[in-house]
Every structure is written in structure tokens, then in C-alpha cells.
Amino acid sequence: MTHPVLLHNVEHKDLRIRLGRGTRFGDREMLSPTFPAEFRNVLAHYPIVFRETGNAQRYEPVALFGFQDGENLFATPDAWDALYVPMAVARQPFLMGLSGDSLLVHVDLDHPTVSTTIGEPLFLEFGGHSDFLEHINSMLLALHQGLQSNAGFVAALLEYGLIEPFTLDIEVNDGSHHQLVGFSTINEEKLAALDGPALAHLHRQGHLIAAHLIVASLIKLRELVERKNQRAPVHG
């Protein structure tokens, strides 16, 4: 359960945020939304694929942490085993809300990192934002702007028919078989076959390099399978 509320400097003057990472701190999601400006950092550790949105945008890029709901192969109870944590995860327990044209910070009061006794304070003793909260505000704005950029990126890929579904078959050390389904990626053959005007158009918009970064990130699927194998008992 979640309990997001608008952050208020009086009502929440005593709130603190525990900075730990890991499943004990809520890091149980199998994926996280991401965006082109973040791809370089994300692909250092995670495969980037598309999931369907169910809205007009149709697809959004996500970083994969596991192969099934609730499985984060980078998270142990008290740690996150990667140097970069995607922004949509790192911003928790905060989220951005919209009121007209204004962006407002909300906090999930039920998140396991929220405390009134230990952690980083959000507000100074005599009023004003702490440095930590200023950092969160900057992160939320960058995340909002980045996620907004996905619409143009996805639209350009769809214009040239570059998004296609894929299925990944996984055999684990314990003898079990799994499939990753319901996700899409870049059609490499169509990307390589684009003519000059199409390439120039994608390049001018900054979408060409983002598409290639997604293709490059797929090598991380092998590492993700290996992480799953390391957690599975050896069959026989």
C-alpha cells in the first residue's frame, strides 16, 4: 500500500528519509521507467526494453531488474548491487504531482524509508529546505522532463517501424524454464536499413543515438540471466 500526500513544511517538518537501498527499503520492483538522457548511465548495468503503456504514447522505455513481478536481481535486503540506480527508483519515496501547470512534490508516508527519528531531514530547524530536499527537487524535475521526452522518442521510432516485440527463453540452474514476454525492443535490421533522410531526421532529434543505446543495452540480458542463476540452487 502507498499513502502519497503533498509535502508540507509544517505538517511534515519532522520527516526524515533513511538512505538505505535494498528490499528492506522497498526495492522490489522488476523494472523502472527510464528516458533517453539517462540511457548511458542505465545501460552500464541494465537492459533497456519497451513496455506497452495503454495510452496514446503506446510504449515507454524501462530498465529491467528481473524477469517477474517482485523480482529485483540487483537488490539484497540491505544493498543495491550496481553503481547507478535509475532516477525513477532513486527518487523514492517522493513523486511529482501536477496542479495545473505547477509541479508539486509529494511523499509516500507508507514507504519504508520514511521516518521521524532517523535519516536525512527534509526541512531545516528554523524553516526552509534542507540540502537533501533541494537535491530531491532537482531530481524530480529532471525525471519529469526526461519522462516527458519519451513521447517524441517513441513516436519517431514508430514512424519508421522500429519497435518490435520479443521473447526471451530462460533456463535456470535449478532446471526451471521461464519466458520474458510482453516487452518490445528495437528491430536492428530495420534500424540498419534506414535511408539517409530517415537517419538524418532521427539524428537531428537526438533519437538515433538513443535507439543505438537501447540495442547496445540488450547485452545486459545475459548478465541478468546470470544473476538469476546465481540465486537459484543448482539442479541435481
List its salient traits:
236 residues, alpha+beta, five-stranded antiparallel beta sheet, three-stranded antiparallel beta sheet, 13 strands, globular
Question: What does this 3D model show about the protein?
Answer:
- The chain is an alpha+beta fold and 236 residues long.
- The chain has one domain (4-230).
- It has helices at 39-42, 87-90, 131-159, 188-192, 196-204, 207-217, 220-231, and strands at 4-6, 16-17, 31-33, 48-52, 59-64, 75-76, 79-80, 94-99, 102-108, 114-115, 120-121, 163-171, 177-186.
- A five-stranded antiparallel beta sheet has the order 3-5-4-13-12.
- The chain is globular, with a radius of gyration of 20 Å.
Layout: helices, strands, pairs:
Elements: E1 4-6, E2 16-17, E3 31-33, H1 39-42, E4 48-52, E5 59-64, E6 75-76, E7 79-80, H2 87-90, E8 94-99, E9 102-108, E10 114-115, E11 120-121, H3 131-159, E12 163-171, E13 177-186, H4 188-192, H5 196-204, H6 207-217, H7 220-231
Antiparallel strand pairs: 1-9, 2-10, 2-11, 3-5, 4-5, 4-13, 6-7, 8-9, 12-13
